[in-house]
Structure to design on (752 residues):
């Protein structure tokens, strides 16, 4: 029997058990060590990949997070008159903008910043419609209810919201800058109109430009101290930027130039995409020309934006710039116009006075009110436009600074249409101002000679088929008649009967035994027409004087006018057959014939200068900032009139006699210019309205002139729609215009 002490026995059992425990612990330690090693290995591999393999990628990402690419806006080019007076320029403005991509998502932070901006910038609420939230099928009902709330035209409101109306995006602004009491009222009233909201300016800007990475202007022309106060608190106004480099378009010459210059407005999404989007020369929040020279010369005026890389901190605050990557902007070129600023102002004043005088007479006589007019003045030696006024006009500065809906509606609802440039877009019967052109083509065609005379007793009677003793009477404006007249005198006294003979053709009428003819009252003998006929009139007026088509002046929206033909009349909504009466009316500038004032001015200029038709032009040159001429626009000859010089001289002498002969329709009308400036002209009274005994209830007042007679420097066309007799109301305006041009009266002037 083996004797072992208890302690030794316990030790021996423990020793026997140790090998199994040791194996277990070793495996666990191995597994733990393996996991640790694997983790370090993965970390090392990741660091190796980041630092070696993807180093360039992370370097670029780090750079992008530290630097921001910003555009440097190019100054828009100036527009000046022929003497260098500034008509359009730029001024620097403090602007507060929002960067939607950086604006806080946290509602509390966003609300705090919004409240600060509204208070500091005095931002007022807007009334907006969310197109997508209008109930399907009830859109028009909601909008009609809204129109009733704000006393708006429901048709125009529906057109704006549902058919575009010039506003893009889901949110459409209906009213801006609501007074607090009106905003409070509307906020309650529109709760029952789904899709209609009263919004603060900040919320609207964010929702209209969701996630935009670039600044969106919140308010321009911010007071300097307010802008600096916001800038000093930029750390607490995340997503808000302040800039003192914004260039705002300014039109110092005044509304007299609005139809010529146009204005600038924000680029639309469609325009931006059409120009090439991000690959274009435009920014998404750029401004582009709208109408006038601003639009026509957009590519010259806009310049080219620059770029800079600015370093920003974690809060988006600019702290530096990579000067080596900077690309300087290229300013737009200066556009030099043919317009004379002071003459334009003098013409505007003369026209306003003429309209007021004509309106006073119209009101006294119970006729329709007179409130509009046009004057075109151009140089017949080159086609250069010296003045071009359409009244009433509009304030183009409002469209830059922000026009209220009320003011815009006032423009739209004005019966005299101030937004329309009637000098190029208005189409009117020219009345007797067409007679110099008709005389030219009649003499050139040989249907009359300078010495052919026709007897005018105040009216003629043109028989109809089956009624040789009846028919239609056609009157001369001088009811007592002019007696025997030839070409020069017919122009001077504006004899209608003479020009009936120039226009009506020698042809066999259907159902007649005799060719087309007429009778003088008390004379049983028929007088046969030997005139041009409408087809030859159409061909000559369009080919020689470019009527019926745009002149090509550097302005958008130019109308074509109309030189009618039998085919046109039959295919028109009137769906009528042409008659000799239609030709008779066209021959004196009535009926379906329609011209723009500019078209007439160009035609008269071709007669004044002896037979050269020039394209009218407003742009004289393009220069750089230093005044160096980049491009000069020379006179453009469209064609030479196919009219012998001796016949043009006959017409010119007739126009001179209009002013000098005692029986001339403009005799004694030129009181400001005096006798030392020889003037030639032609009056026109284009009648319209319901005729009573051959007389019409309304008429447009026309007058056209050129001077000096021997070597013309200026052609003037005056039109006062519904103004009455041209000799009475338009001639004094032409007198004032010519007096201003020749320095007979002081011209309005202002230091540029």
């Amino acid at each position: 029997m083996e004797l072992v002490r208890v302690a030794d026995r316990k030790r021996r059992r423990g020793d026997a058990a140790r090998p199994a425990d040791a194996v277990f612990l070793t495996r666990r330690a191995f597994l733990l060590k393996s996991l640790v090693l694997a983790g370090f290995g993965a970390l090392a591999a990741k660091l190796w990949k980041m630092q070696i393999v993807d180093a360039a990628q992370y370097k670029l990402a780090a750079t992008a997070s530290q630097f921001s690419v910003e555009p440097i806006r190019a100054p828009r080019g100036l527009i000046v008159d022929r003497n260098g007076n500034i008509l359009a320029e730029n001024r620097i403005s403090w602007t507060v903008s929002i960067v939607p991509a950086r604006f806080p998502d946290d509602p509390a932070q966003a609300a705090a910043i919004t409240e600060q901006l509204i208070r500091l910038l005095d931002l007022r609420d807007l009334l907006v419609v969310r197109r997508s939230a209008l109930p399907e099928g009830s859109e028009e009902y909601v909008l009609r209810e809204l129109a009733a709330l704000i006393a708006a035209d429901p048709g125009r409101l529906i057109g704006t919201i549902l058919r575009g109306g010039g506003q893009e995006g889901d949110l459409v602004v209906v009213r801006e800058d609501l007074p607090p009491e009106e905003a409070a009222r509307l906020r309650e009233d529109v709760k029952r109109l789904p899709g209609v909201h009263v919004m603060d300016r900040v919320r609207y800007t964010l929702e209209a430009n969701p996630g935009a990475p670039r600044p969106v202007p919140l308010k321009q022309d911010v007071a300097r101290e307010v802008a600096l106060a916001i800038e000093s608190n930029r750390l607490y106004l995340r997503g808000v930027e302040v800039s003192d480099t914004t260039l705002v378009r300014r039109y110092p010459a005044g509304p007299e130039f609005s139809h010529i210059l146009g204005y600038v407005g924000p680029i639309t999404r469609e325009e931006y995409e059409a120009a090439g989007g991000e690959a274009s020369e435009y920014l998404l929040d750029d401004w582009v020309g709208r109408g006038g020279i601003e639009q026509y010369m957009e590519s010259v005026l806009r310049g080219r934006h620059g770029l800079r890389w600015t370093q920003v901190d974690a809060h988006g605050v600019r702290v530096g710039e990579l000067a080596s990557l900077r690309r300087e902007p290229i300013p737009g070129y200066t556009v030099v116009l043919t317009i004379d600023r002071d003459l334009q102002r003098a013409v505007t004043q003369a026209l306003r006075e003429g309209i007021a005088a004509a309106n006073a007479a119209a009101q006294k006589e119970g006729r329709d009110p007179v409130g509009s007019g046009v004057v075109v003045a151009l140089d017949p030696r080159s086609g250069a436009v010296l003045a071009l006024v359409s009244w009433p006009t509009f304030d183009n500065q409002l469209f830059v600074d922000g026009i209220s809906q009320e003011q815009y509606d006032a423009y739209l609802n004005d019966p005299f249409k101030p937004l329309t440039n009637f000098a190029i877009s208005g189409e009117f019967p020219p009345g007797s101002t067409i007679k110099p052109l008709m005389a030219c083509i009649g003499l050139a065609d040989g249907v009359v000679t300078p010495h052919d005379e026709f007897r005018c007793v105040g009216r003629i009677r043109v028989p109809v088929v089956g009624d040789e003793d009846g028919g239609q009477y056609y009157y001369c404006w001088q009811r007592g008649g002019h007696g025997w007249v030839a070409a020069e005198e017919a122009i001077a006294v504006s004899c209608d009967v003479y020009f009936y003979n120039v226009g009506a053709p020698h042809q066999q009428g259907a159902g007649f035994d005799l060719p087309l003819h007429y009778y003088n009252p008390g004379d049983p003998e028929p007088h046969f027409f030997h005139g041009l006929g409408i087809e030859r009139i159409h061909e000559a007026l369009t080919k020689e004087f470019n009527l019926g088509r745009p002149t090509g002046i550097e302005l958008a929206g130019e109308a074509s006018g109309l030189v009618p033909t039998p085919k046109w009349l039959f295919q028109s909504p009137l769906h009528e057959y042409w008659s000799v009466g239609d030709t008779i009316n066209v021959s004196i500038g009535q009926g379906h014939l329609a011209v723009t004032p500019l078209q007439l001015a160009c035609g008269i200029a071709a007669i004044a200068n002896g037979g050269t038709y020039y394209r009218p032009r407003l742009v004289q040159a393009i220069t750089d900032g230093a005044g160096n001429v980049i491009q000069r626009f020379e006179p453009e000859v469209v064609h030479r009139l196919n009219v012998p010089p001796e016949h043009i001289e006959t017409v010119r002498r007739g126009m001179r006699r209009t002013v000098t002969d005692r029986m001339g329709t403009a005799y004694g009308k030129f009181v400001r210019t005096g006798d030392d400036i020889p003037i030639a002209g032609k009056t026109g009274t284009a009648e319209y309205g319901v005729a009573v005994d051959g007389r019409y209830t309304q008429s447009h007042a026309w007058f056209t002139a050129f001077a000096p007679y021997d070597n013309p420097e200026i052609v003037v066309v005056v039109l006062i729609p519904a103004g009455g007799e041209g000799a009475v109301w338009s001639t004094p305006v032409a007198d004032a215009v010519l007096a201003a041009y020749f320095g007979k009266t002081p011209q309005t002037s202002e230091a540029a």
Notes: The two ends are 134 Å apart (CA to CA).
